[in-house]
Amino acid sequence: MASRGPESRPGEFELIAKLFAPLAKNVPGAFGLRDDVATLAPPKAGYLLTLLLPDWTDTRWLERFTQGLSRDQSEFGVALIGGDMSGMSGPLAISVTAYGFAPAGAMIRRAGARPGDTVFVSGTIGDAGGGLAVLKGEAPAEKHSFLVTRYRTPLPRVALGQALRGVASAALDVSDGLMADLEHLADVSQVAISVDAARVPLSAELLALRGDTLETRQRACIAGDDYEIAFTSSARESVADAARHAGVTVTEIGRVEAGRGVRLLDGSGREIALPRKGFAHF
């Protein structure tokens, strides 16, 4: 987890809004830097790769690394189009900038959720957080390999994202944590979101690690790195069709309402206190 910056420095989103958004004001497709995406004219498929390599990254390591990249390229239909590489005395650093495209007017943004929409999420939530906890010693890694794999090698829901075009009113990936990311979506859409804790989908493997308790659900909802898709829609049947087409489980977990902010609710409709909403970059 990234360390917090000096007390005098604003948080990530305040910093973006105050200092960096003005730099993008003349680019309509940058959306004021309030989204995870921008509309550009990129190559049909590709990515840039930057590597800072310490001395221990020998030829054998690089061969294995590029073999893995080759498998990923085949699976996702992308290709390396450039980047930078340099030696260094510090730790290994890898940066990937991926480019993709969507038909004009078909991109699903954070903005667009409307009161009355239903909130959905793909797959299961909290697995990556459980895997990280296992690697930190909460339980033997060999007994919880599924969770460790979910943390180390998450799989993006590309097919579902494509199937949700014209179906989802707003969407984003669950990277900072379910509640934190839904808060981002609610903020940009200028709505409120309520999530039913009991309906958040948890894997059998996570339940085997921690049991189905309120604490388990709290921790799952604020853990990050799942890279599932959280989205809103008013078309339940179309959502079900998209899920079947993509071969991905999708679960209804809440609702969009008038107002602001996000809430996690128990079975009686009472708000569940959370120590935080998710991961903060600063």
Describe this structure in words.
The protein has 282 residues and is an alpha+beta fold. The protein folds into two domains: 46-99, 60s Ribosomal Protein L30, Chain: A, CATH 3.30.1330.10; 118-265, PurM-like C-terminal domain (Phosphoribosyl-aminoimidazole Synthetase, Chain A, domain 2), CATH 3.90.650.10. It contains nine helices and nine strands. Strand 1, helix 2 (59-76) and strand 2 (80-87) form a beta-alpha-beta unit. The longest helix has 18 residues, at 59-76. The protein starts with 11 loop residues before the first helix and ends in a 17-residue tail after the last strand.
Largest sheet: 6 strands, mixed
The CATH architecture of the largest domain: Alpha-Beta Complex
Low-confidence stretches: 1-6
SSE string? HEHEEEHHHEHEHHEHEE
Number of separate helices: 9
Number of strands: 9
Q: Any idea of the CATH class of the largest domain?
A: Alpha Beta
Average pLDDT over all residues: 90
Would you summarize the structure shown here?
The protein is of the alpha+beta class and 282 residues long. The protein has nine helices and nine strands.
Q: Can you give keywords for this protein?
A:
282 residues, alpha+beta, 60s Ribosomal Protein L30, Chain: A, Phosphoribosyl-aminoimidazole Synthetase, Chain A, domain 2, 3-stranded mixed β-sheet, 9 strands
